[in-house]
Specification:
By secondary structure, the chain is an alpha/beta fold. It has two domains: about 210 residues, 3-Layer(aba) Sandwich (Rossmann fold), CATH 3.40.50.300; about 60 residues, Alpha-Beta Plaits (2-Layer Sandwich). It contains eleven helices and 13 strands. The strands form three sheets. It has a six-stranded mixed sheet, sandwiched between helices. Strands 11-12-10-13 form a four-stranded antiparallel sheet, covered by helices on one side. Strands 2-1-4 form a three-stranded antiparallel sheet, with helices on one face. Helix 3 packs across helix 4, helix 5 packs parallel to helix 6 and helix 8 crosses helix 11. The longest helix is centred in the middle third of the chain and has 16 residues. It is globular, with a radius of gyration of 23 Å. The two termini are about 35 Å apart. InterPro entries: AAA+_ATPase, ABC_transporter-like_ATP-bd, ABC_transporter-like_CS, ABC_transporter_ATP-binding, P-loop_NTPase.
Length: about 300
């Protein structure tokens, strides 16, 4: 697989002084794949993405991007990458179309071809009617779609997206998801970081969960759920809650695979949620509310990385 991979890493390390941000990870990204990085703050996602984007040099290990060495061939690699940063950095002094045509010129694209690509991409991201307007009046979702269009203007082999929908409202998020899904259908290889578990489930063919600079799990969203969680989760809320939830969790021990007491509810992980609820009542417990739902990638993420907030 390594010979066919657009990204191949072996024992990849990134240190900043005494701090190890990325601690010996291995990964492969195949052509046409949508690959995701999940992890809490400080997990090493951004440091890995910066090395893939050829803007940060690996400390140790082997990294190949598009079959090339990013240290020796960084300029050639960057010419074939599309990058959508976490914060939009569009030029407010240029029109919407000019943001694309000017950027295309950096890659040696002719003026006529730059205009053709810009018009095609603006139609793709549903911004054709804004082509001659300025950037500033655009909504957050429109700016995000324009940034994605700009990342595609050099017809890249690989597109890097850092938190592509952070700060967007639900409607804008779903429209961006739709555009990214269309890129997947075209065979574009996507590599993204995200804090949204539903986004990872929607977009990623495969992903890794990072914590403390290491990869702690890898697979498709469905495979990760099957391997690290149960088919269903029962959410139990008790009237006296809060400090009592830990006591309730002790009384639920043995029902399902595990019990997770939270400040506002108790989570009971079981393959058969209805059977677990029946057992809860047989033990004489009377929760104020009961919700049985399917297990999600968020359950996997919190199980692997913990619930402690990392600044």
């Amino acid at each position: 697989m390594a010979d066919q991979s657009l990204i191949s890493a072996r024992g990849l390390v990134k240190r900043f002084g005494d701090f190890t941000a990325v601690d010996g990870i291995d990964l492969e990204v195949a052509p046409g794949e949508a690959f995701g990085f999940l992890g809490p703050n400080g997990a090493g996602k951004s440091s890995t993405m910066r090395m893939i984007g050829c803007v940060s040099t690996p400390t140790a290990g082997e990294l190949r991007i598009l079959g090339m060495d990013p240290v020796r061939d960084g300029t050639r690699i960057r010419a074939r990458l599309g990058v959508c940063p976490q914060l939009d950095n569009l030029d407010p002094d240029l029109s919407v179309r000019e943001n694309l045509t000017t950027y295309a010129r950096y890659f040696g694209v002719s003026r006529a071809e730059a205009r053709r690509r810009a018009d095609e991409l603006l139609e793709f991201v549903q911004l054709s009617d804004r082509a001659n307007g300025k950037v500033e009046p655009l909504s957050g979702g429109m700016k995000r779609r324009l940034t994605i269009a700009r990342a595609m203007v050099n017809e890249p082999d690989l597109v890097l997206l850092d938190e592509p929908t952070t700060g967007l409202d639900p409607q804008a998020r779903h429209l961006v998801w739709e555009r990214l899904f269309r890129l997947k259908q075209r065979g574009t290889t996507l590599v993204l970081t995200t804090h949204y578990m539903d986004e990872a489930e929607q977009l990623c063919d495969r992903l890794v969960v990072m914590d403390g600079g290491k990869i702690v799990a890898e697979g498709s969203p469905r495979a990760l759920i099957e391997n690290y969680s149960t088919a269903e989760v029962v959410e139990l809320r008790f009237a006296d809650g809060l400090d009592s939830n830990a006591q309730y969790a002790a009384k639920l021990d043995g029902i399902g695979e595990r019990v997770d007491p939270l400040p506002d509810r108790v989570l009971l992980y079981a393959d058969d949620g209805d059977a677990a609820v029946a057992e809860v009542h047989r033990r004489g417990l009377s929760p104020a509310s009961v919700l049985v739902r399917r297990s999600t990638l968020e359950d996997v993420f919190l199980h692997l990385t913990g619930r402690t907030l990392v600044d």
